[in-house]
């Protein structure tokens, strides 16, 4: 699975990551960041496919995508 991290303080709230995420993983944070923007935030991390569209579109380069290893069940 994948983990997305959005730098809340660098986001300028352009909305491109939200618009281009095919899985609706990202939404607008109703709270303002220190610069006065409603930053993008993750709403449904488990739905992320790691496609990379959000990070590719972000003009502020404030999105990082990590692959997270998931342990297999003990008796699988
Ligand atoms: S990597 Fe793809 S699926 Fe995951 S949050 Fe970004 S755009 Fe959405
Ligand atoms: S694309 Fe980048 S700057 Fe724009 S809302 Fe998303 S995280 Fe913020």
Q: Can you tell me about this structure?
A:
The structure is a single chain. By secondary structure, the chain is α+β, with helices and mostly antiparallel strands. The chain has one domain (2-67): Alpha-Beta Plaits, CATH 3.30.70.20. It is built from two helices and four strands. The strands form two sheets. It has a two-stranded antiparallel ribbon. A two-stranded antiparallel ribbon has the order 2-3. It is elongated. The model has no long low-confidence stretch (mean pLDDT 95). The protein binds iron/sulfur cluster (SF4) (2 copies). Residues 4, 21-23, 25-26, 48-54, 65 line the site of one iron/sulfur cluster.
Write the layout of secondary structure elements.
Elements: E1 2-6, H1 16-20, E2 26-32, E3 38-42, H2 53-57, E4 63-67
Antiparallel strand pairs: 1-4, 2-3
Bound molecules: iron/sulfur cluster (2 copies).
